[in-house]
Structures are given as C-alpha cells and as structure tokens.
Amino acid sequence: MQRYYIPTARELARLQQIQRAPILHHSAESLTGAASIRAYGRKDRFSKANISLVNNHLRPWFHNVSAVEWLCFRLNMLSNFVFAFSLTLLVSLPEGFINPSIAGLAVTYALNLNGQLSSVTWNICNTENKMISVERIMQYSRIPSEAPLIVDDH
C-alpha cells in the first residue's frame, strides 16, 4: 500500500506547493495595488482571478485528501482482517492450548494495530512531503542569478 500511496502523496503535495505560489503572488499584488484596482473598477476581474487560483490549488488538495482516505480504508481493512484472523485462531484453538492472558494480550495488540499502521505510514509520508520543500529550495538555488540592474563601465 505504501508503494502506491507515498509516490502519489508526494506528487500531490508537490502540485499543491506549486499551486500555492501564484495565490500568494496574486494576493500580494492585489494588496499593494488595492487603490488602483478600486479606482479602475477591476475588482471583479481580480476576484475571478483569485477564485481561479484558489480552485487550481484545491484540485490537488482534494485528490490528496482522497488518497489519504484510500489509504485509511485499506489500512482499516488490513487491520480488521488481522484482528478477525487472530480472534478466529484464538477461538478455534482447544481449551488450555494457550494461556488466557496471552490471548488477551494478542487481542489488545491486534486492536492497536490499526493506529500503529496509520501512524507509521503517516509519519513516513509526512517526512517525504516535507522533503519536497527542501527539493524546491535546491531547485531555486541552482537557478542562475540575473544580471545586475546597473552595470559599471570598465
């Protein structure tokens, strides 16, 4: 499951971060030019542009939430199968074959399996998603610098 989920979540997180930058840029431009926007009567155009940018950002977010639900459903199913198997095994064993305290411990661990699986998978995915920010910083650091605005004559 991780083999399918983690690459998908990583790419969706990358798309979300890429789509977030235009929203921030547009908001900053709108704030600095608010007086001009109102003076020229362009509020509707800027509002529509903002809504479009937010919608573009929400598309990968929606798919990311859907991927999380996909993963949670499958982890729950896996945990339920393990729990059902362990209970069936414990019930079908002859009496006295296994100590009741060990059986209770097995049931307790089987109940906690769902939370543990979800926690481990979430932490791995979250770590990989945070590394996307580092990857983007590395990409920006490799971009060549622009020429200076004023060039001194030699």
UniProtKB/TrEMBL annotation:
Keywords: ATP-binding, Membrane, Nucleotide-binding, Transmembrane, Transmembrane helix, Transport. It holds the Pfam family ABC_membrane. Transmembrane segments: none annotated. One of its GO terms (cellular component) is membrane. Residues 1-129 form the ABC transmembrane type-1 domain. One of its GO terms (molecular function) is ATP binding. This is ABC transmembrane type-1 domain-containing protein. It comes from Aegilops tauschii subsp. strangulata (Goatgrass).
